[in-house]
Amino acid sequence: MKDNKLSNAQIAWRAAQDIADGAYVNLGIGFPEMVARFAPEGREAIFHTENGVLNFGEAPAEGEEDWDLINAGKKAITLKPGAAFFHHADSFAMVRGGHLDVAILGAYEVAETGDLANWSTGRGGVPAVGGAMDLVHGARRIAVVTEHVTKDGRPKLVERCSLPLTGVGCVTRVYTSLAVIDIDANRFVLREKLAHISLEALQALTGAKLVIEGGVSDLVVPEI
Amino acid sequence: MKDNKLSNAQIAWRAAQDIADGAYVNLGIGFPEMVARFAPEGREAIFHTENGVLNFGEAPAEGEEDWDLINAGKKAITLKPGAAFFHHADSFAMVRGGHLDVAILGAYEVAETGDLANWSTGRGGVPAVGGAMDLVHGARRIAVVTEHVTKDGRPKLVERCSLPLTGVGCVTRVYTSLAVIDIDANRFVLREKLAHISLEALQALTGAKLVIEGGVSDLVVPEI
Amino acid sequence: MDKRVADLEAALEGVEDGMSVMVGGFGGSGAPIELLHALIDRFRATGSPGRLTLINNNAGNGRVGIAAMIDAGMVERIICSFPRSADPRAFTERYLAGEIGLELVPQGTLAERIRAGGAGIPAFYTPAGLGTALAEGKPTARFEEKSYVLERWLKADVALIKAESADRLGNLTYRRAARNFSPLMAMAAALTIVQATRIVAPGQIDPEAVVTPGIFVDRVVEVPDPQQEEALMRAGVSH
Amino acid sequence: MDKRVADLEAALEGVEDGMSVMVGGFGGSGAPIELLHALIDRFRATGSPGRLTLINNNAGNGRVGIAAMIDAGMVERIICSFPRSADPRAFTERYLAGEIGLELVPQGTLAERIRAGGAGIPAFYTPAGLGTALAEGKPTARFEEKSYVLERWLKADVALIKAESADRLGNLTYRRAARNFSPLMAMAAALTIVQATRIVAPGQIDPEAVVTPGIFVDRVVEVPDPQQEEALMRAGVSH
């Protein structure tokens, strides 16, 4: 464990442990895509990508890419047996219609109300939203994987988001580099934290009150 | 010509003469289905049926039916080369989205306003609507094929429909057993009539004023 | 992940009194006769499931399938576009006696309402039915000088679907015009139960040719040589 | 009925200044590069078509395809969900300079608005965007205790589509994930122009496997061995 916090891969590993056998899963562009690598032994998840593929697998070897076979992040993928192609309206019917079991997304900020901000830094530049605003209202469970604080040390878990919202009251679990936190009745409920961090230290890095309810477990992940 | 009026087949023949080469056409259940038999030489129309087939052909020989290959009237059909199957939402996207060139439907009553009544006799019994209410708002041109009067001699072309409406202001041409009539600016404009019927006699069999505009041609059809 | 079940009884587990049941098919094409008849057999043996709301384009024909369910007294209400058929006795008699409810919906609106249910679209505007008895009491709105009727999504507790090929992940193809409402209903039901003429290994269905991706399917039971409603009708079969 | 045309120029006839143009593809997969480049060539030679509104999921990448159209100065406005890419210079520079308009639409809403345009649904409700800047000013309504945003259909004057197989009637299949928005755009444009990797005889495409039925297609031009945007990008090609 570097810098006394989880790496992105370790956060992704932890999130993967909560994916049930047979789940249909959408992973956000970038770091959330790593979750697919850590599906627990004996469980089969089926991954969905917005651009019209169900049941894709690992990236192909370099030089073996088929650029008509990509994911929402425009990265080359491969197919597993039993894959299916479909157009964008059908793909978002899956999303909006509540057919995905879980979507695991990145975040700029998450509020204790479950609000998510992950599409605009609000600083000008070119805005881009992609499928995030559909996903947050579609999947049965919306989880976030994220650093616990920003690069300059400010909390990413806050009382109210300061950045433009992606969705209101949608996130129910956050996997951070320090803890696993549920969002329940507009509160951050701490479920797991790294053993070496005190509650007080964790609270100091969090922009809203951490509620303890029924005990806090150690957040334990393998070296990856 | 029996009884000095056109047979259903002859009405269908006349309607078929107005179908352009390359037209996409939906034919109502029952007598309108006969239109498909009379496509003029050298013109290729493509027929659509609501239950998810484009480019179907004639009925198969008896005993050769495949009951998974039927039209909206539940009659067995065959496929032409270049046919396509699709589900009901896509089928009515074709209808509602304005992709059909013409729909040719039956009628209980047609009003000079273009209103059509063809789904309910209003007399109790079991009502049934099928795809008619979608078709009247979808196809670029809605034509009606019908007897000029009911079996008991009452006009089917009227000022205002007395039966429950299928659609408001949708019909633009009516092919009857006696005449061809356009509906334009809430008027019945007579275009063709059987030569042996006087204008006065035709008007007497019609429940709204017949307007003459630019001349009336003889309605001429082959013996079929 | 394996959505295959051993037999029709296992496939139909959890279909209970008072449920809404979408039934694939347009007339006899695509009607899942074996699933329907197994449900009738259960009703006759146990008295359940009864008081069902059926959603189908039609309301049965002859003495098999949906008509046989009506005859058996399992059906409280039907949502359909066209309750007439070659032999509509089962529905007609009960309807005229006031013993069965009917919600008549224009066919394209029925299809779109079911798709909307599956696609998470709670309501949409359509021109169909405007100014007619079937749109009475429904909100309307004008867009670009044309009026439209607001229609609501339609979902169901269960969908009973007949497919041609299926794999254990629930990917489906259909046979010819037997496709009709089935791919939409598979999306719109909480529990989608499929009888497939053949079950193949994953990968045996070309990913380009999958019509219903497995995400919409809960259970698959193999029924080789399925019965065809129209053929049963013509043979005078009663169930 | 024969929708085949001889070459790209004939295919693109009637694409004029100020039109709205839907362009199939998601990133490089499905991008109709040859149609786009032929349009750029015409613009360079004749100064037309300019002032275009492009509708695509993205806003171009590198110096080819949509990015090259922007570079050429043909594009007035883009409607898309994700105008970022590996090399978004063409769009970004013009956007930050205020020289190109942007309507940002959530991806599922973009897809559904295009489908609605093709399906004759003038407006529908979706949860996407609720309570965010992208739904500001849009009507909302509550259904079963949940709020939704009203979104309008999206149509276009022209759709430019890349297909895998086509026949003279316009029936289409696509290649793998290159399908994406193309079947929807084919429905929603007044003039749908297709470049197909191969044109086959009617009947050669299995009626069960047709993805876009010919009714949605106006013209088909054969472009064997089409270029792939991602590959061009990586090779550093500029058009």
The gist of it:
The complex is a heterotetramer, with two copies of chain A (224 residues) and two copies of chain C (239 residues). With 224 residues, chain A is α/β, with parallel strands linked by helices. Chain A is 14% helix and 29% strand.
Question: Can you tell me about this structure?
Answer:
The complex is a heterotetramer, with two copies of chain A (224 residues) and two copies of chain C (239 residues). Chain A has 224 residues and is an alpha/beta fold. Chain A has a single domain, classed as Glutaconate Coenzyme A-transferase (3-Layer(aba) Sandwich), CATH 3.40.1080.10. Chain A contains four helices and 13 strands. Chain A has helices at residues 8-16, 88-96, 132-138, 199-204, and strands at 24-27, 46-49, 53-57, 78-85, 102-105, 109-111, 116-117, 141-146, 157-158, 173-176, 179-184, 187-193, 210-218. Chain A starts with 7 loop residues before the first helix and ends in a 6-residue tail after the last strand. The model of chain A has no long low-confidence stretch (mean pLDDT 95). By secondary structure, chain C is α/β, with parallel strands linked by helices. Chain C has a single domain (8-120, 155-234), classed as Glutaconate Coenzyme A-transferase (3-Layer(aba) Sandwich), CATH 3.40.1080. In chain C, the strands form two sheets. In chain C, strands 1, 2, 3, 4, 8, 9, 10 and 11 form an eight-stranded mixed sheet that branches. In chain C, helix 2 (33-46) packs parallel to helix 3, helix 3 runs parallel beside helix 4 (89-96) and helix 5 packs across helix 6. The longest helix of chain C has 14 residues, at 33-46. Chain C starts with 7 loop residues before the first helix and ends in a 5-residue tail after the last helix. Chains in contact: A-C, A-D, B-C, B-D, C-D. Chains C, D: It comes from Arsenicitalea aurantiaca.
